[in-house]
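User: I'm writing a tutorial on reading structure tokens. Could you give me a worked example: one chain, its sequence, then its tokens, then a sentence or two explaining what the tokens reveal?
Assistant: Sure. Here is the example chain.
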Amino acid sequence: MQDLNVSESLPQLDIRYILHVLWTGKWVILACMLVALALAAVNNNFQKVSYRAQAQIQIDAPPFLPSPGADFNAQSSYYLNIDRYFKTEKQKLTSRRMHLLFAGRLKQQNPRFQNQSSDGIAGELGGGISLAPVEDTNLLWLEFVADDPRKAADWVNLYVDLYVEENDRQQGEAVKQSRDVLKRQLYEIKSMLASQQTQMNQYAESSNLPVTPEMASVEFEMVSRYRADYEDAKAKREEEEQKLAKLETYIADSSKLTNIPELVSSPSFRSYYIQWVEANNALEKLRLDGKGEEHPTLVAKRTELDNLRKQLRNELVKYADGMRVSVSVLRNREQASQKSYSEKMAERRVTSRHMAEMSSFIKSKENWASAFAAVEQKLRDLSLQEGFVTSNIKVVEHAGAGYRVATRGANFVILATLGGMILGMALVVLGEVINPRVKTVEEIQTSLSVPALGFLPRTKDFGLHQIRESYNVLRTELLFNKNLRQHKVIMVTSSLPEEGKTTVTMNLAKTLAAAGDRTMVVDFDLRKARLRSILSTGKQNGNSIFSPVEGLKLRVEQTQLPSLHLTVAESLPQNPPYLLSQPSLRDFISYLSDRYDWVLIDTPPVTSVTDPVIIAALVDTILFVIKYNFVDKRIVRNSLSALAKTHANIMGAVLNDLDVKKTRYYAYQSYYRYYSDSDAK
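And here are its predicted structure tokens:
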């Protein structure tokens, strides 16, 4: 067997363990399935027969009629709100208000419902009606379920007709309200326009203005034009003067010809300038070719450059003279414009305040005129909409006689049975979570991650054949481990007291001794020492007193089996952990290992004291005893983890005190009993 490194954390779920838990609780799952099946059958048997009627309506968005001055954003906003309009209409169809309107209309048309309350009729309609939109269309099915087929059809038809009628009425009221509002606004704006005109006339007369309001507007435009001409002439004159100043610097210094900016637009100047650049490049090339300054070619090229420079300067002078004339003309224009503007402003200086006030009147009147035109256009659009737009909601198909609604049959029963199965599985898993005790051999390997060595049935009579066979199976596991790893010194321990580890040690020792193996049982439960009262006959075995550790005297005694001996303490010591941790104790255990085929060491539970953890480092392997349905898996896991920290070898665990008659292991015991009885005969 391998050394186990048992983790303190919870193990990962094992599918085999989960399936085992579900199989263990199969009767609970089956009971839940049967109960769910019975309830589903009863529900189907007593289910009330219902009938469904369907009517179809079409809901179109109201058309968009833009006014002549409407912009694109208004139309975009309209289309963005269409989806909201459809959702609103669907909410109206299921609203309490529509249900109450239906109740009132039904009581008017059908005397049979006159004595019923409107709330009761509205509640019955709301409980049976539903909407089913047709995908990717504006069509909508209205479905109503009732206990009578004729009633289902009549109610849903009356409801859709009422809905269309109510929609038309609301649209008509909305148009009427809009028309009234627009007419009222138009009257108010017209009154304001008349009042504004009266104020303008009165102000013009009181101020002795020589112009009508229209003339005042023209006068303002003339003053603005004079000022614009003045500013334009001034800007152009300053620009020409700046260009002329830059050009005169180039004329004064002929060496700056290469830096002349793009100021000159004369074609002759550009022609001379290109020739001068080409001649200059040719001169530089001759110098690079090694021609001397006195070389005839070089002298001729320099002469050509000088002539071109003179011609360029003459062209610049001519261009500059032309610019001076242009600047003079612009200055005269500027002065003339400034004079006209100043004269006009001098004329208006006296009446400037009155003209500004009049301009304010004119602007206000124009604003009111624009508002009047806009409202008048809206009123015309509204009239156009009344003339061309029909109802945007209409009934596509009225309902015929209602058809019977399919009852919940086989599918409902199957779903209920599956639900019962799921509930049963949940209860089984919940029971496992609530009671996390070790109850099966499979849990030892799947949940605790240690090898499972089998189980020992619940009985106090070792003479029973099935008990003997259980211990023979355990002996076989020990023999296999011994042959594989030479492990003969075995510590037997458990997590908690009362798990039967001492009884297992005793019966296992008897089984080994009965097979002829020399077996020594060492009682290192130095706080209780129960094995002496169970196995010992009181006879000492020769020179049987040992003192491997000072303060601890051990005595070897005989038992009823010749090949089975028992080592016990003469008296219970005061400090067992200290005595068991002495190095000389390992020599004593080695001594016993040399003289016996098997050495079984009984120790206290791991959770009670530290003795088992100390002894674990002295033995070859460990046999862990777990009592059936007694100890929590977390406690067992912590105990195994404490032993694993000493690097001890854990051979495996055995499930003790199993009630085989209540578990699936009963078949195994029947098998053991059959063959054991045959052997006995």
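What the tokens reveal: The domain at 51-180+381-404 is CATH 3.30.1890 (Bacterial polysaccharide co-polymerase-like). The radius of gyration is 58 Å.
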